[in-house]
Amino acid sequence: MPRNKATAKIVKSPGELIEMTPTPAPGSIAAHMESVIRQLGEDPTRDGLVNTPQRIEKALRYLTSGYQADPRKIVNGALFEVEYDEVVIVRDIEFFSMCEHHMLPFYGKVHVAYLPNKKVIGLSKIPRLVDAFARRLQIQERLTQQIAQTIQSLIAPKGVAVVCQARHFCMMMRGVEKQHSDAVTSAMLGAFREHKETRDEVLALMNHR
Ligand SMILES: [Zn+2]
Hints:
By secondary structure, the protein is an alpha+beta fold.
């Protein structure tokens, strides 16, 4: 992030350097956030809020960094040819996302399974794929589908199953104010969609504790 102004340093007392806040660039997210803070009835110049607009911008850019992620680059060098043809499962992948309707967090766990067709993905790459789609403005249904479709297009397995359990702050803090309800979504492709037995088997493996 280019900073619009050089950070000025002023000496308050001998040996003490105080960092002065650069004013947010006009039109930047930080400048808009300063205006939001003011419209909420707060004083963006008071001590605790001085750098808040810049912090919000930084946080938002991180939380939406998935837009810059390229799934092919993520798995680059981690696609392997194998004879293995049993199901591969990565369970309990934590994720944090933001609902596109309220820009409030939703978070939870994703379970990813696929039935290889001569190709597998390095296991550590699967959580990174999840992050690439979670760090965007999302809805849980689309997040679930995108993870499944991406694995499908990367390695053309015989089947992909993705199950996502999440809690939504827009449900917990506002609206219906339900703190303990999980939303569950799933995406089933190929063999997991076509064969009930195969699907039941993978769901049992995902739930097995
Ligand atoms: Zn929402």
